[in-house]
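Weekly structure sync, notes
Attendees: PL (lead), two postdocs, one rotation student
Agenda item 3: pending single-chain targets
PL asked that the sequence for the first pending target be pasted directly into the notes so everyone works from the same version. It is reproduced below exactly as submitted, 149 residues in total.
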Amino acid sequence: MPTCPTCRSNVSEPLRTWPIVKAEKNGEIVDCTVGIYWCTKCNIKFPFAVGRQRLKLIETDKLEELHDKIKMVGKVKQELMKKVDQLEQEKAIVEESLILARLEDKAENLKVEISLLKEVKRELESMIKYLDHTPSLKVETSKQKCIDQ
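Predicted structure, written out during the meeting:
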């Protein structure tokens, strides 16, 4: 937003605008829009460049060559995007198989633990049966009960 050079207040609307095109020494062309602004506080009119754009002249052959390169880069980009999509799909499949392998390992470990626990259970059951069938231990336990009372 332009400011008044005298009182530094902001001026929002130009009275008039027009385009200006000028060539610079380095071969570039500057295209800008200049406006005449009027400050209501100090009642002064001043010019202000609203938009400025640097342009450069190039030969038509070079421009066409650049367009061709842009098209080629666009095609390469599309191919790379396809490859990225394929790699992401492969990554998802590999991650799923990795998770599946881990779960299978856990299941195998659990099967081993279950078989060990079943074996311990059988041993404990056989010990209980043995203890229930030995008469000397029954007599001793009944004597103990009598003594305790």
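Discussion points:
- The chain has two helices and three strands.
- The beta strands are 14-23, 29-39, 44-55.
Action: rotation student to compare against the earlier draft before next sync.
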